[in-house]
Amino acid sequence: MNKINMNEKYTISKQIKILAISFMLIGLAGIVYGFVSAPSNIEEAKAIVASKSHDSHHGSDHGESDHGESDHGESDHGESDHGESDHGESAHHLVDHDKHLLHQLQNKPWASIYVPALFFMLISLGVLAFYAIQRASQAGWSIVLFRVMEGITGYLLIGCISVLIILLMSGLHFNHLFIWMDPDVVAHDEIIRNKTSYLNLPFFFIRAIIYVSGWVLYRNITRRLSIEQDNSTDINIHKKLFNFSAGFLVFFLISESMMSWDWIMSIDPHWFSTLFGWYVFAGAWVSGVTTIAIITIYLKSIGYLKFVGDSHIHDLGKFMFAVSVFWAYLWFSQFMLIWYSNIPEEVTYFITRIEDYNFIFFGMVALNLIFPLIVLMNSDFKKTHFIVILTGIVIIVGHYIDVFNMIMPSAVGDQWSIGFSEIGGFLFFLGLFILVVFREISKAPLLASGDPFAEESKGFKYYYYD
Amino acid sequence: MSKNNLHVLFDDDDILLEAIKKIREKKYYINEVYTPFPVHGLDKALGLAPTRIAIAAFIYGCIGFTVAILMMNYIMIVDWPQNIGGKPSFSFIENMPSFVPIMFEMTVFFAAHLMVLTFYMKSKLWPFKKAENPNPLTTDNMFLIDMESGDDLNKLKVFLKKTGAVSIEVIEKNENEK
């Protein structure tokens, strides 16, 4: 390492801006298309389902596996392959059923923007927790990555606000993502009724505001202190950062867990899992660390971050490997206990996913566990930029599908597909994330040079390298 | 004058690493280094080949994984199928999730134990073996380099003192041992 400019700043390149904005525009078009093409009444919903089953599996798997919605849709159009079984089961059931179908299809564009909004917010939140851990443990190796982490957490406010807006739209009954928000449903559902002391709209939004303000407050305080530290030799700033981070981690532990119950688990209000909070956190953590690694390698490849060496990338690779295994451990713990005990109200969660989402549900496990486990096991691969980027993309996609699997089955049931609105939603928030994160990175020097451990971090070397 | 062995003592691991680099630069031959704790980078400094224990561990893990699958298949499917929690076990794949903890534990068990055994065999260690370290101080706070003296002992001694050696002891080689 020869000369390194301490106050080197990143300037956001035009290509990145154009890329991000075009992602957002394409995404927006997809989202708008999704909303426009959503059915507004029961007839339209039935027509959509009927045309879909004509297109895809007409004739192929008619009698054997299809059940529920799609068959009903066809039979109403006179094709009828269930006529003998439950025609007499009262018209009331059918009407209910069609209404349900309409709600699912109307939910689809909402759910397909809720998934990416949540996913990118969780990346930011995972990085914030990782950052707080580095601060609270006074780690020596990671100082050189602080400005990248602070850049990613810059998305937190916007990410949280976009999630909150969607939740608010739910609360105002523009969509039926959360059925417990519908007083009509609650009146006929004893299980939800017993939960209303926790699951009610005012308390729900009060909680949401508490979480978000706590996270954003911590993020802004540490960011301000961190920049102040650049031109200061005051050790008190370091001590303050430590104290805030340790306090934040306690708050985070509780608020993140409750956030995952509120914003994700309550979409399926009958179901519950006690380790759900960890599980969501593990996913956010590994996607966050992966994002740090990808952005760091990108910035290095265009000539910035010269003080980040192989050893830092190697450590990020170790985290990607370890947390992927940790995530899989939690995923499996949740799955196996519920599968094994086979209690109807619990196991229904996995039955929907295995029946209607089989390929992506298990495919996600392959992407999130088996791929990183095999590829990143080799010590040398963890510092090979190409392989870290490749595995990183697989992990990001895998965890996106994980969030997709948390939301979609409860929101749209078996009416899911990867169409314009899903891809559009992903691209829109990806573009927003890239734009906000790189702008935030460009606002401060790339090295937190005032940190007492900055020199140690620059010289950090895994002993096995020369 | 025949070649003798030298026992050179150091009292700091960083000084030891620097000394080893200089000694090897001068083309002296180091037989062995004794330290009270594992010193990071010592293997590199001595120019030892990278350890292959990781590859061995991977293979042992695979063996454990396979043994667990065969074992659970025999116990729970072939030999004595049992109805546990309403899940009659006539198919391995349908009952696989409940075997995963066992597969995991067996993988870890095989990898860990066989790795320790391999390490003992490679280091020629076994129960009741007499300790090989030449100076009991190396179990306390001293680092010892066991090296060959070369031709000019006095010149070597001056050189070693410069690298930071605390004491130098010349060991006459027993001809019978050789």
Short description:
The complex is a heterodimer of chains A (466) and B (178). Chain A is built from 18 helices and no strands.
Map the helices and strands.
The complex is a heterodimer of chains A (466) and B (178).
Chain A: H1 14-37, H2 42-55, H3 69-76, H4 83-86, H5 91-136, H6 146-153, H7 156-171, H8 183-187, H9 190-193, H10 201-230, H11 235-264, H12 276-301, H13 310-341, H14 344-356, H15 358-375, H16 385-412, H17 420-441, H18 454-458
Helix pairs in contact in A: 1-17, 2-3, 2-5, 5-6, 5-7, 5-11, 5-12, 5-16, 5-17, 6-17, 7-10, 10-11, 11-12, 12-13, 12-16, 13-15, 13-16, 14-15, 15-16
Chain B: E1 5-10, H1 13-25, E2 30-34, H2 42-46, H3 53-79, E3 83-84, E4 87-88, H4 92-122, E5 143-148, H5 153-163, E6 167-171
Antiparallel strand pairs in B: 1-5, 1-6, 2-5, 3-4
Count of discrete structural domains of chain B: 2
In DSSP terms (H or I, runs of 4 or more residues), the helix count of chain B works out at 5
Helix-residue proportion of chain A: over 70%
Shape of chain B: rod-shaped
Amino-to-carboxy terminus distance of chain A: 14 Å
Q: What are the secondary-structure elements of chain B, in order, as H or E?
A: EHEHHEEHEHE
Distance between the termini of chain B: 16 Å
Sequence stretches where pLDDT stays below 50 over 5 or more residues of chain A: 55-89
Total strand segments of chain B: 6
Q: What shape does the CA trace of chain A take?
A: globular
Question: Any idea what the radius of gyration of chain B is?
Answer: 26 Å
Mean pLDDT of chain A: 86
**Total strand segments of chain A:** 0
Low-confidence stretches of chain B: none
The overall number of domains of chain A is 1
